[in-house]
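Lab meeting, action items carried over

1. Structure of the two-component assembly. Owner: GW. Status: complete.
Input record:
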Amino acid sequence: MQHSEPDKTTGRDLPSITRHIQARLSGMHPAYFALSMATGITAIGCHLLGLNEFAAALSWVNFLSYPALWILFLARLVLYRNQVVADCTNHQRAPGFFTAVAATSVLGVQAVLFLGNPALAKLLWWFCVVLWALCTYGVFTALVVLKEKPSLAKGINGGWLVAVVATQSVCVLGCVLDTTLLIDRDTTLFLLTSFWLCGAMLYFWIISLIFYRYMFFRFSPSDLMPPYWINMGAVAISTLAGALLAKAAQHSAFLAALHPYILGMSVMFWATATWWIPMLVVLGIWRHLIRRFPITYDPLYWGLVFPLGMYAVCTFRLAEVLQMQFLLGIARFFIMAAAVAWFLTFLGLSRRLLFAVLLAGRHLWRSRPELPSLSESKPIGGEPHGYQ
Amino acid sequence: MVINEPKCESKSPMTLDKSTDKSTARSAFHAKAKQRMKWGRQLVIGGFVVAVAGIIFYCILCFSADLNPGFNLVLHNYNSWLLTSLGVIGSGTLLWLRGSFLYLLGAMESDPDDPDLYF
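Predicted assembly:
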């Protein structure tokens, strides 16, 4: 079979695989750890609600994706340091660094639930605290001291609430460990309660700005990015942290006095999260069905999957603490929604990877050395084959 | 009145034939790529639908077993139903993979003058 020389002017002008990977790595969003957050919380939700096969599969995906994301992040830090520094001073992208904190915490919870390894979870908790301190006091300081700042309309988005998610995630993992992390149990619980209340205050500050931006500035379909679902995700994780603290209060003299307050605040957070859901669904219909904004894969879509999984988990835990069985029906519905959303987003990511593989294959095929055809080859000292 | 007739550069019939052939071949190539993209898109959507149906079916099975302790005894071959639902998810995923492969190959070979593609 004769291979014709491929016409280089047909088809699209595509970059080489090396340039493609370089472009992807240099432009990698700091919020990509949302993939690990979303996978982990969906696995935890599936485990709690009896979807064991899904829980096992998702756990394995997360155990592989978390270190892979760190490798990519560190490679970007080494090879494209300027881009990383630029992200730290970009109001839209800087809060994405907080996803590393929440992803670490979620992995720690999985270490307890799936691996039965509290020692690993304890190590991850300390790593989580260090990362939280670096992100909080690094990112916010960098944004405060910036000489030129964007307007509120351009600077703020739902992704800012990942700072709240990160703060609450420290409390969540600490409660799941339910052990002495500092001096004694009551001191540990005091610290975890402080993280919870600090996260709540951050939520009130940031959501006020986001709500103000929604209501008083022009809002186009492209402004409604997937991280707006974190408006709901941040209060959902606050509910989870509160429910876990309320459970820990049963065996703590310090928390016992605060038990009604913690329970009341947790119900308030859950009600707020529930309020957001129809609003975000309606805005999503406006964006994609009415304004026909195309749905294409974007790493920020993991910021939509995480809140769905977190809402299912927080509703389950709240049902446990309040002894209200009807809440379990809501948790089941949302874990199903989270599983579907995770699957669709993962397929979108897989398509990107498949494109890179095809690009590499195409490049290898086109740069292969041309083999001489049999009809042209001559044996030494004789007629060519086929010509006898 | 002088009518200036446009000068026609005379081209040999062979050169004209070659450029026409090349243009025809390119159009056929792009049409084939577009067809591949169309099939790929249909398989991708079909794969999504099948896989999501499988996920919902699996969830309903597990929740029913959870809510009714005797459910997995009442429903004959509960385990095989569970495996079936996982199989449906797997089939949907394979359909999606085939469709994506077709679509991406077609997209790479599509007309560069067509709108940009994002995936």
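2. GW to write a short summary for the group page. Key points so far: Chain A touches chain B at residues 7, 9-14, 49-54, 294, 296-297, 332, 335-336, 339-340, 343-344, 347-348, 350-352, 354-355, 358-359, 362 (CB under 8 Å). Residues 48 and 313 of chain A are 8 Å apart (CA to CA).
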